Amino acid sequence: MTSVAGREAQAGSGEDRLIATYFAPLARHPGAFGLLDDAAALTPPPGCDIVLKTDAIIGGVHFLADDPAADVARKALRVNLSDLAAKGAAPAGFLLALAVPPSIGGDWLADFSRGLASDIEAYDCPLLGGDTDRSPGPVMVSIAAIGVLPQGTMVRRNGARPGDRVAVTGTIGDAAIGLRLRREPTLAERWRLAHRLCEHLIRRYRLPEPRNVLAAAVRGHAGATIDVSDGLAGDLAKLCRASGVSARIACARVPLSEGARQALAAEPELIEAVLTGGDDYEIVCAAAPARLDALRAAASEAGVALTDIGEIVAGDEPPQFLDPEGRPLAFAQPSYSHF
Amino acid sequence: MTSVAGREAQAGSGEDRLIATYFAPLARHPGAFGLLDDAAALTPPPGCDIVLKTDAIIGGVHFLADDPAADVARKALRVNLSDLAAKGAAPAGFLLALAVPPSIGGDWLADFSRGLASDIEAYDCPLLGGDTDRSPGPVMVSIAAIGVLPQGTMVRRNGARPGDRVAVTGTIGDAAIGLRLRREPTLAERWRLAHRLCEHLIRRYRLPEPRNVLAAAVRGHAGATIDVSDGLAGDLAKLCRASGVSARIACARVPLSEGARQALAAEPELIEAVLTGGDDYEIVCAAAPARLDALRAAASEAGVALTDIGEIVAGDEPPQFLDPEGRPLAFAQPSYSHF
Predict the structure, then answer these.
(1) A195-252: per-residue pLDDT in tens?
(2) Which residues of chain A are within 8 Å of residue B10 when distances are taken between CB atoms?
(3) Would you call A339 and B132 a contact, using CB atoms and an 8 Å cutoff?
(4) Angle at Cα A193 formed by Cα A189 and Cα A199, nearest 5°?
(5) Which of B11, B95, B144 is facing A241, going by the closest CB pair?
(6) Is there a contact between A54 and B95 if contact means CB atoms under 8 Å apart?
(7) How far is B177 from chain A (nearest CA, A)?
(8) Do A38 and B227 make contact, defined as CB atoms within 8 angstroms?
């Protein structure tokens, strides 16, 4: 804590003390002014565009009430970082609006700020400003993330062309299966999942791993991208609609973790949850075949798997997910939706 | 609604339809991409800094559950615009994170988006992106506002010097009195307030009037500024702490509306609510005496009152608010605080 923040903590209101104790120590960017001004100031690098994104997470909706506060903080930041990664932008900082019910005390806030601090460092994304409120409702964490990239280079959803390959980072479906395990622990036995595989799947729900290390590679090689937050099927459908194309995806090529593969073997119907459940925070992209090797090499160098799962085709129907016999799957609900 | 948004509305999820119906039509800035991408892109004007601010408002905390949705939207935007104004920045756009309980339907959302549309135009502050969620709690509107100003010219809280004059825009205390009237309508009779004065006071609570027309003047002439959101006493105390100074304010010079003056005449104890109640969204600033006339002239040209209420003095005690006999007032709670 800086001495100014310390003075503020003594002199100000309860809200000032809370900010000085838990958040000012995180705000080391000079433009955050130690959270002691009305707003932050950023000098954008010359020739750059600013990329802007906001996503909120709410207790009981996007995370469970007993999730560790450190993970809640990190998830709130990471779901926004994932969008920056998909668009090819480097993180420049973020604003935090936090509303907490009266039941939330200092321990929770201390844990929350510890989690935030570790991701601020891990993703080099400084806290620039924020707002804290008491709320009669659940915890709500609303983050606005600011990214930068060379002018005019943001990777859009609308650049996919027939003939492009469709590739996805990491593994798909872990979070959807992890959430089921979290809610119904007996499923682990039914699916014959070892403890470590359960832990991996649940962790993938609780703490996304956005692919910010791939931002430059995505910008250099992908024609269209979207981050997978509402499910691969629904998000790829959005990319296809924006591009005026369709896609054919081989379900068997969709990358699965060991735990997801075992769960799916025990209960094949889980394929719908895997493809539509969401919370993956991977990047799905369309890339010209000639660019795919370079993209895969960059991913491999960054330690991230990148898997070719199908192709962009002409047409305006939703992407088809084909089973091993070439039959398209039908989904009851193709995408997570709040409404 | 654009044809692409129309198509999205037919093809997508309930959330896509909601965005396409109520929000995409507002997102006319080219960098908002019709809300059909993961993020927005802004090209900052050369030689400019980006000013960033987030503030959330919550039903039952910052507004009342039966406030018109259009006013809720406008208040959410305006409390952020007020910070940009105080810092001397011109609005460049905003991000909106909206969480609504299941009881909120299409009528409310339509009214909300109408209110937002009118302020987007009035303040020339485009909607750049957003996030909509169902929430088990109250309505929560979290906005992140982005402003621009010439590099290095953001007006800070920490530039006040002994000898500076303290000036404030508009009138102070209306919102605090308006909120009391809203909660306890019989007070109107006790204070002998005409209907139109009550309406004015209540409206000042429901719908702030941020002083964005003064941004350039503030930047040109003020040494230190803060927007008055938590009460004049508390916010001026923050400015003084940041600047390492104190202040002496003449209560009799604090500008009051006709309604506030009448209420105060009927109930002198209201002076504490006037000075500490908050929700004013005026600008209080410290300016060298030689700059005050220019600042006042610019304000007058913009149709905004600017009143000299006292002076910055050396010292590190909180600002003193002096009654007509020169005695300092003591406040039970000098500033609104959520914690």
Answers:
(1) 999 999 999 999 999 999 999 999 999 999 999 999 999 999 999 999 999 999 999 9
(2) none
(3) yes
(4) 110
(5) B11
(6) yes
(7) 22
(8) yes
Q: What are A213's two structure tokens?
A: 């290390």
- Best probe of the A interface among B8, B37, B211, by most A CBs < 10 A, is B37
Residue B217 φ then ψ, to 5°: -65, -45
The pairs formed by A189-197 with CB atoms below 8 angstroms and a separation of 24 or more are A190/A266, A190/A267, A191/A262, A191/A263, A191/A266, A191/A267, A192/A262, A192/A266, A193/A259, A193/A262, A193/A263, A197/A257, A197/A258, A197/A259, A197/A262
Are A138 and A94 a contacting pair, CB within 8 Å? no
Backbone angles phi, psi at B32, to 5 degrees: -85, -15
pLDDT of residue B5: 36
Strand partners, B40: A52
Q: Which of A17, A83, A144 sits opposite B38 (nearest CB)?
A: A83
CB atoms within 10 A of CB A185: 11
DSSP B324: T
**What is the phi/psi pair of residue B317, to 5°?**
-85, 160
CB B100, CB B134: distance < 8 Å? yes
B136-162: per-residue pLDDT in tens?
Answer: 999 999 999 999 999 999 999 999 999
Residues 6+ apart with CB under 8 A from A280: A170, A172, A173, A174, A175, A176, A208, A228, A229, A231, A232
Cα pseudo-dihedral A227, A339, A52, B218, rounded to 10: -170
Is the Cα torsion angle A311, A313, A319, A320 positive or negative in sign? Answer: negative
Chain B hits for A4, Cβ within 8 Å: 242
Whether residue A140 and residue B138 make contact (CB cut-off 8 A), yes or no, is no
Please tell me whether residue B173 adopts helix, strand or coil conformation.
Answer: coil
Query: Which residues make Cβ contacts (< 8 Å) with residue A103, sequence separation at least 6?
Result: none
Fill in the amino acid letter for A112: F
Q: Are B153 and B49 in contact (CB under 8 A)?
A: yes
pLDDT above 90 (res B316): yes
Q: Is A136 left (phi over 0), alpha (psi -120 to 50) or beta?
A: alpha
Flag if A49 and B42 touch (Cβ within 8 Å).
Answer: yes
Q: Inter-chain contact A131–B95, Cβ cutoff 8 Å?
A: no
Chain pair A-B, CB pairs under 8 angstroms: 260
